[in-house]
Specification:
By secondary structure, the chain is α/β, with parallel strands linked by helices. The strands form 6 sheets. It has a 9-stranded mixed β-sheet. Strands 17, 18, 19, 21, 22 and 23 form a 6-stranded antiparallel β-sheet that branches. It binds adenosine-5'-triphosphate (ATP) and magnesium ion. Magnesium ion binds next to loops.
């Protein structure tokens, strides 16, 4: 029988994520269980137990207090996926401070604006990142009191080396008496549709992190689990730190970026049981072909899930062929803090559908009507909305109260995404409200067109937008990248357009297809359609702080 994990209440009704993620397990005799199996870029392999993490995070919290950092203060993490990132996150929560993880690859400006918005008091980073991206403007952020430097090398002026500080600090640090509604984390959204927003999450969110990890990802005590996301976006924290530790799994942390053989080898060697990844990575695997997977043994895998972008039906079918089981798509947002809609373990997967709401979540498809909302019947497309109230719901957009309030109408939280619910209660993603294409009276979601395009053997990825047209209002235009072995040509364009017309019909098929080496994506791997469109129309590009690839 599997052990059921329940969150223990403290006598004084306080609640602290670090206590529940670490101390509780240690107190119950699991201190020697590996919490993090860390794989270094250079081949290093380090096991960090629950006991180690409790000790290290206590020392980190002591370091904060030794430098007069108080409960409620704001701590930013800016480094790769090194053990210190996880120690900082948990130590910050233990100290009752608020943690904000940033992508280490951000340039100086995105770092600075986010630290300004989040009134950073502490920055934890490496010497190299500090020198290249922070030193020049550090003094312009008056709230910043402490910069802790991870790793070896010379410590820049005005900074403190974390390693020796941890060694010297006390390992006795009781988790701070945070209340359920005290802020714990700030996450910036991916910036796919515009300027990133800072979503505030509270300690009580852990209730949902714990339960949704079990419900949607099948996490159990001692499960070997790998979430490939970086904590710089919400998946890498909610399901790459908190949910797995709350559920006492052993989680893999890979410092390196995507590398097909490394990934396949990691699953085989470490006997990964549950794997949580994203469509952008899955499409890269598909691009390499099923043959690349044949030498590997994936029999340890019990459950595979995907999030972040729509998972094309083709990708679901491909994964069944290659891994003997589908990737299970699930849907949520930085704002929701946790998985809302999912293809749960044991559910029949309909390729292309996001699944059904998790226990405790009520989702609906709604339409605005004179200041109120009307729920739409099954089969109709409208905005995906949720009944507010689950514990991991954001409590604010930092310094953007009006924008936050606008998300709540008539007893619903509005997601900004369009979707449809079918007769069996499955939800189908149509597109972001901003990305919808209106052509000759039809409403077209880019996802449908992109999914049809990547069914063509030559197409690896597709980004679809609407461009203004005098007669049709808008026409569909596609940007695509090619699979190895294919060359861009007029003949290929005709062939792909023919395929699209056959599957989608002439009204929906792209009028024009452009071949690209890469598509513009966010650092979390999302195709930035708004950027394709702005460039197409010669409009300002807007906030591109999260842009990753940018080659035409
Ligand atoms: P921003 O809000 O700054 O524009 P973002 O919405 O991409 O960026 P995130 O919170 O990281 O920031 O992403 C959530 C969004 O990602 C969802 O609203 C949805 O559009 C998309 N998404 C996530 N999971 C899925 C999924 N399974 N299927 C389709 N879309 C998804
Ligand atoms: Mg969003």
């Amino acid at each position: 029988m599997s052990e059921e994990i329940t969150l223990a209440k403290t006598a004084d009704d306080t609640i602290n994520i670090a206590r529940q993620a670490l101390d509780r397990h240690v107190a119950e005799g699991h201190g020697a269980q590996v919490a993090i199996l860390w794989l270094g870029k250079d081949g290093a392999r380090r096991e960090i137990t629950y006991g180690d993490l409790k000790d290290l995070s206590s020392r980190f919290a002591s370091v904060l207090r030794d430098h007069d950092i108080e409960q409620g203060d704001s701590v930013f993490g800016l480094m790769g996926r090194v053990p210190e990132l996880y120690v900082s996150a948990l130590g910050t929560l233990r100290a009752g401070c608020v943690f904000t993880p940033l992508f280490s690859a951000f340039g100086p400006e995105p770092i600075r604006t986010r630290m300004e918005i989040g009134s950073a008091n502490v920055l934890v980073t490496t010497a190299s990142i500090y020198r290249r991206k922070v030193a020049a403007w550090r003094d312009d952020i008056p709230s910043l009191k402490l910069a802790l430097i991870v790793g070896d090398g010379e410590v820049p002026d005005g900074c403190v080396a974390l390693g020796p500080a941890l060694e010297a600090a006390s390992d006795a640090f009781e988790p701070a008496s945070t209340g359920p509604e005290d802020p714990a984390l700030i996450h910036f959204t991916s910036g796919t549709t515009g300027k990133p927003k800072g979503a505030v999450h509270v300690h009580n969110a852990m209730m949902y992190h714990a339960s949704s990890g079990r419900d949607a990802l099948d996490l159990k005590p001692s499960t070997i689990y790998w979430c490939t996301a970086d904590p710089g976006w919400v998946t890498g924290t909610s399901y790459g730190i908190l949910s797995p530790l709350l559920n006492r799994v052993t989680m893999i942390v890979d410092e390196a970026e995507f590398d097909l053989d490394r990934w396949y080898d990691t699953i085989q060697r470490e006997k990964v049981e549950v794997w949580y990844s994203a469509p952008t990575a899955i499409r890269m695997m598909m691009r390499a072909g099923a043959e690349a997977a044949t030498p590997y043994d994936f029999s340890s895998l019990r459950f595979m899930a995907s999030v972040g972008e729509p998972l094309n039906p083709e990708a679901v079918i491909w994964s069944e062929k290659v891994f003997g089981q589908p990737f299970h798509d699930n849907w949520w947002q930085t704002e929701t803090g946790g998985i809302m809609i999912a293809n749960r373990p044991g559910m029949e997967v309909k390729p292309g559908s996001m699944g059904k709401p998790l226990p405790g979540i009520t989702a609906g498809i709604v339409e605005r009507e004179d200041g109120t909302l009307k729920e739409l019947p099954e089969g109709e497309i409208g905005e995906l909305a949720l009944r507010p109230g689950w514990p991991s719901m954001m409590r604010a957009y930092l310094h953007e109260e009006a924008r936050y309030q606008k998300c709540f109408v008539d007893g619903w939280y509005l997601s900004g995404d369009l979707a449809m619910r079918d007769a069996d209660g499955y939800f189908w993603f149509v597109g972001r409200a901003d990305d919808l294409i209106k052509t000759s009276g039809h409403l077209i979601g880019p996802f449908e067109v992109e999914s049809a395009l990547i069914e063509h053997e030559a197409i690896a990825e597709a980004g679809v937008i609407g461009i203004p047209d005098e007669t049709a209002g808008e026409v569909v235009k596609a940007y695509v990248t090619l699979n190895p072995g294919f060359e861009a040509s007029d003949a290929l364009e005709r062939d792909v357009r023919g395929h699209a017309r056959k599957t989608l019909g002439p009204a929906v098929a792209p009028r024009e297809i452009v071949f690209r080496k890469t598509l513009p994506k966010t650092r979390s791997g999302k195709i930035m359609r708004r950027l394709l469109k702005a460039r197409e129309l010669g409009l300002p590009e807007g906030d591109i702080s999260t842009l990753e690839t940018d080659e035409t």
